[in-house]
Structures are given as structure tokens and as C-alpha cells.
Amino acid sequence: MSFSGINYWAVLAATVLGYLLGAFWYSRKMFLKAWNNALGDQAPIKHSILAYIFAFIFQLISAYGLAVLLGQSPALLTALWIGFWVGLFFVTTALGINYVFSNRSLRLLFIDGGYHIVKFVLYGFIIAIWRK
What we know:
There is one protein chain. By secondary structure, the chain is mainly alpha-helical. It has one domain. The chain is 74% helix and 0% strand. The protein has helices at residues 8-25, 32-39, 49-70, 76-101, 106-129. The radius of gyration is 15 Å and the shape is globular.
């Protein structure tokens, strides 16, 4: 694990594309209705601009973190697999722990966890193919 050799343009691109993936994932064309149904009474009516700003910042931190884990010039297949495993083993399981104690549904976990798995695979793809 090294903090040197990080391709910051790739991290920024991964951040933006991960953010856009989230906009699509939680859109009417994908999982918005199922997500709102799974949330039930907790479904948000409208998000503030601050929510979107923080979401972008957290995307940036997570993309940077994966870039650090992958190191300089990772092989594409390795980056895809590591992205998948990070999304599954770390993010989805952490969400699962929180969801169990907050009485959230397994369906919600699959929607949210699925997004993060796909997002980290996307991060891995971008970081691996974008050479300095």
C-alpha cells in the first residue's frame, strides 16, 4: 500500500462516474421505487444540496482509498476483483450490520450493497485503465 503514484485524474474520474452511477442506480428507471418501498416511512421526500455535496466528498474518499489499495498500475482483472471484494466484504457487510440493528430490510441491503459493489468495480476499472 502506497500513497505515492496515485493517478489523481483517474480518482477524480472514478468519483464522478461513481456519483453518476448512483444517480442512475437510484433513478426511476432502476431501483428508486423499490428503494423507497424498502425504506417505508423513512423514505426521504427531498434531499438538500448538502447531502449531494457530502455524497460527492465520500465518493472521492472511497475512490482514493481504492486507488491506494490497488497501488501503481494495477492489472485490470486484479483491480476489478479487488473492487468487487471491497464492495462486498467491507461495504455491504458494514451496511448489513447497521441495517440489522436499525430494522432495515434485506431488500434495502441488496439495493444499497449492490450499488456499492458495482461502484467499486467501476472504480477499479477506471483506476486500472487510466495510466499516468
